[in-house]
Amino acid sequence: MNEFGKMSGEELLKHRMAKYRKIGVFIEGEPVEPEKKINMKRRDAVASTSRNLEGEVEKLREQILKAKEASPESEVELSSEVLNEMIEKLKSDIDEEYTKAAKAMGLEERLAATREEFSKANAEEHLMHPVLIERIEKLKEEFNARLSEAPNYESVKAKLDMLKDFSRAKAASEAASVKKEINKRFQEAVERPEVREKVEAVKAEVASSGASSFEELSDELKEKVLKTKREVEAEMAVVLKSMGLELEAVKPNLKEVVAESPNENIQEKLEKLNREINEKIEEVVRTPEIKSMVELLKVETAKASRMPDQGSQKIEALEMQIKQKIADALSMSGLQEKQEELEKELAAARELAGEESDESVKDDDDDEDGSGSGRSEIINPSFA
Q1: Interval 199-226: pLDDT, tens
Q2: Can you give the residue ranges of every domain in the chain?
Q3: Which residues make Cβ contacts (< 8 Å) with residue 333, sequence separation at least 6?
Q4: Which residue among 33, 99, 257, 368 is least packed, with the fewest CB closer than 10 Å?
Q5: What is the DSSP string of 118-153?
């Protein structure tokens, strides 16, 4: 009795429920006599999950609006915490809805068997067998095709739409948070006394030179400006590296470079080459092998989002395989050679245009002073 006295009302009810089941007074699934049933505790009313979610969504929207009114900076912290919780709830609820839909469509047994096979294969370190991947793909296609027949289709659709919206909001929130942190670190880097002193000194020299553009600066001052710029960029690269990010050199876009070329023939060739490359990539991605690999990559990525410490090697291996397959297909199609030829043709056209520009400037200078002794304008092709 002392033990019962320490129990709460809820604990006593659970103890009584377990006792009656243990001694056989009540058996799950079997009908209960009316005279006994009248004294039994009724089941707790289960609130509608959809209604609960809608209420939580509305509550979240109100919180975000209040945060915006109070301070734009507080939006990131608030949305980050609440969105993560909401996304997890939605994912869990969507899984339940999918199970109900599969049961209604008669796919429950196939789904359970496939899940069991997937769990066994996933426990091993090597990649899944292509036959299992194909079976998963077929079941997924059939499920999606017949989902509209399920009685809970509207509920599934509404929750999927909510999940998409919250996932976008989470991505935007994370991007804003990273941007804010980068800007803060950059500001700290450029405000360091030694960096600030160099920048201010170069600014003063440029201002005193009276030049209105970079081209008008002397060679010595141009070199100082470029050197200072490189030093500031190096400081920023250190900041990014400390945040686990990397700064990659930006390779000039072939399309942008061609746009600067007056040769219309080269522009037409580039447009045609781009079309051929896109068509080839789409053709490769539509093959059963790549489709299976992409689907497996999605599965592994989803699993890694729940368990970040696992599956990274599988994901990297799959990404490398997909990229290699596409690269091999492009290489065998001869498109890579076409791009290299176009780049050579473009380089020759740009070199020719630069020579013509230099000749034009030289002729103009000769016409102005007649002797060629005047100061000629310094032309830097990269700024022309």
Answers
A1: 888 888 888 888 878 888 888 888 888 8
A2: 2-37, 54-174, 191-249, 261-360
A3: 276, 280
A4: 33
A5: HHHHHHSSSPPPHHHHHHHHHHHHHHHHHGGGSTTH
